[in-house]
Amino acid sequence: MKKISEYKEALSLLSIEDQVAYVSEIKDDRKGVLKLIESVHKKALKHQKELDRVKGMMVYEEELLSRGPCIIAGLDEVGRGPLAGPVVTCAVVLNDLFYEGINDSKKVSLKNRERLFDEITESAVEVSYGIATNEEIDELNILNATKLAMKRAIEGLKRKPDHLLIDAVKLDDIDIDQTSIIKGDEKSVSIAAASILAKVTRDRMMIGYDKTYPHYDFASNKGYGTRAHYDGLNAVGISPIHRKTFVKDFV
């Protein structure tokens, strides 16, 4: 009779689907083995729910593709709320629609964001970024600066999309069909992918800025208004990347 540790070692080498098949063949009614089998079934149920969730994020893309060939670009932004730094947008045309664990970038752990960033970048048909600087945010306001950055991301694509899936924003003066989706980064895999690519890119930018402007803890807060950030503003004032309209009390 196998030790429970031997069962665990065997399971560790298998996919969740193969684990279910493996435990279905076990004829061992020891309490520890039964608990192990139960844990495999619970894990499989959780895994299936996650697969169903991700597949549910393909509805918009699949509906568009059902009409015929269509270049779909997902579009999202990151950085509307911070006190410093640019707003970063991303337009992405996906090849594959299924990415395990994909979601709104704010709901994905740092480790999984980095994994998904690499997977999406490597497999996507095309990726383009658009940026609006803190000066442009001050001049145009954050909404208009975000739209400007989105248009820059679209213009950076080599092939013009047939349809845009955009998180919450409606773009004017652009001759491409578009669908604006509230909480789109939770409902569309293309928008979620754009969200993750934009967030990882902007986070890396802010980590870089932290080395140039070390008083504000940008590496940790990414420009948002944390205690350490406000302490830096009180101590040394604003930096060249601060949005003056966001930190009026310190200008």
Please sum up the structure shown.
By secondary structure, the protein is α/β, with parallel strands linked by helices. Helix content is 51%, strand content 12%.
Figure out the total of helices: 11
According to DSSP, the number of beta strands is 5
Q: Give the name of the CATH superfamily of the largest domain.
A: Ribonuclease H-like superfamily/Ribonuclease H
Q: Summarize the biggest pleated sheet.
A: 5 strands, mixed
Tell me the structural class: alpha/beta
Give the overall form: flat
| CATH fold field value of the largest domain | Nucleotidyltransferase, domain 5
What is the overall pLDDT average? 94
Give the N-to-C terminal Cα separation.
75 Å
Work out the helicity level.
40-55%
Tell me the name of the CATH class of the largest domain: Alpha Beta
Trace the largest sheet across and list its strands: 3-2-1-4-5
What oligomeric state best describes the polypeptide chains here?
A: single chain
Q: Rg from C-alpha positions?
A: 23 Å
CATH architecture of the largest domain: 2-Layer Sandwich
Count structural domains.
2
Percent range for β-strand residues: 5-15%
Low-confidence regions: none
